[in-house]
Amino acid sequence: xxxGTHRRSHAARQAGFTVLEMAVSVGVVGALxxxxxxxxxxxxxxRARSHAEAQTEVARQALRGFVLRNRRLPCPDLSxxxxxxxxxxxxSCPGGAQVGWLPYETLGLPRPxxxxxxxxxxxxxxxADLVAPSGSSAExxxxxxxxxxxxSLATLAARTPGTxxxxxxxxxxxLESCGRVLSNPAFxxxxxxxxxxxxxxxxxxxxxxxxxxxxxxxxxxxLCIAAPGRPMDRQYDxxxxxxxxxxxxxxxxxxxx
Length: 257
Known about the structure:
- The chain is an alpha+beta fold.
- The chain has four helices and six strands, in the order H-E-E-H-E-E-H-E-E-H.
- The protein has helices at residues 3-70, 147-158, 214-220, 245-255, and strands spanning 99-101, 119-122, 167-168, 187-191, 224-225, 239-243.
- The strands form two sheets. The chain has a four-stranded antiparallel β-sheet, sandwiched between helices. A two-stranded parallel ribbon has the order 3-5.
- Helix 2 (147-158) packs antiparallel against helix 4 (245-255).
- Mean pLDDT is 82; it is low at 135-142 and 196-204.
């Protein structure tokens, strides 16, 4: 082999190693980028969920304060996408209105963008209507020192759980079904996060952003709600918070002693 041929062969081997090393390096960088991207998505989802949980807790406390001041719970905002931000629709609250949007302005809360608005459900069975307690009108409910709302809460707490008012299903994803009634809360709040396996379009006015059992509650005012303890998975990432009649009754007792 001539010296020139040897040099060319050595140079080719060097070039080959360089290409191989470059391929390995690109693969390593790609893997790291994938891991970093996955970690970022997980972190972003964690932040979004934490934000939704904080929003529902603020709303829960605002609803408690409303009960304390007005001796009733507010009627849901019945506007299409929560743009009304006040009770009912056009100043009226039909007797059967149990599901809608959180009435932000009524509660003294800033109205968020459509994509962050909470669905709100309130129990209004006959004899235990929490919006117009014990048959009173919504206007005169605060003149009885809370006796009517306490009586309505006690009646709701003693009822056999049923499907005529908003109800929570089983928290186990393998068991949850609108045919399984876990309990009837005094009220419930539902926040929708973007679908974990969705297309990422993030349409703020898309009611299909709500997952699982909550889809029908969002699109057709169905009364079936996923349990607050239901774990997240690839098809479900909603945040649900609720207040039982017993818990709200006990809290009112501590505030009105």
